[in-house]
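Intended use. Records like the one below are meant for learning the mapping from a protein sequence to its folded structure. Do not use them to infer anything beyond what is encoded.
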Amino acid sequence: MTTAEFDPAQVAEVIGKADIVTPMTIRAAVRVGLFDALADTAGSAGTADTAGTAGTLDLDRLTTAVGGHRRAVRVAADHLVHEGLLAGGEEGYSLTALGSLLTRDRSSLGLRDLLDVDTVVGRNEIALVDFDHTLRTGRPASEARSGATLWQELDDADADADVSSFDWEDPGFAAELILDSPVFATASSVLDLGGNTGSLALALLRRWPHLHASVLDFPVFTDRARARAAEAGLAERLTATPGSFFDPLPTGHDVTLLSAILADWDDDDAVAILRRAAEASDRVVVAEVHLTARGRLASETSVAVRLEASMTRPDRTSADVEALLVRAGLAVETAVTDTPDRSLFVARPLGGAA
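Structure written out for the chain above:
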């Protein structure tokens, strides 16, 4: 095929679909604080309108504000103007309504975490550049470079890494199934495996005043969980222990809890984790999130790719989870499987107390 036989419009369409210039420019601008610099100018000038778009910085002042290189900042800012996130030009740049969504004042939207590669969510997102690893192996793309999981990389990289994006007050994903489970009414203590920064454990302690909890996770998370417990006045009821759920677990708890854990692991690893949980207590509670490719903010196929690149088994059904429990030597006592986002199983080791 010669060049003359190509349809230029089709070539342009392919280039447009594969273009990474705009996504990376936006991420770079978030990371260096470009949107925040313009928002700060709007606020300090007292001229911000209700959309948060007023306030202007010329190129020199914008370059100084972000500690950047003048030519590179101009090129990036001009492209962001072209894409509708900024307005103006070298004589003065300002935020548009779109750009204002990326300022720290709008951080509750979650966009900044998604676009900042210094966050866990952002690291996981940018790992899509290695999606070919997932295509070849079925493993998360984040493991392509080092062979380590995203969580291991985060813990190994910096013991002081900021994991505050996991400091949820509301654990989400139908967490009330866990919080209201009667298994905790008669339990005195719960071990939360992979409990992260303690969001779910703290919610359980608030829901059940008699309960004590322990979080087991990487040190970067358990350090934060202890701090959060102290901030909440619950330090006497929550402990946090660094460790791996593939190793023998702390004993002495009535319940071992696994919430949204198994989707990150293939069947053999999931069974190994469940067997460790069965060794640790008389009851095992598995509250697995069932992720579906809903297309509210992106196409369903796009969401499906993101899930596939992020975890090993995002597609397990409640029946699949129950089969893992049985394979791990656990007898299911009660099950809730009629909610769309999460199933909950209370199980006991075969031969354990009835």
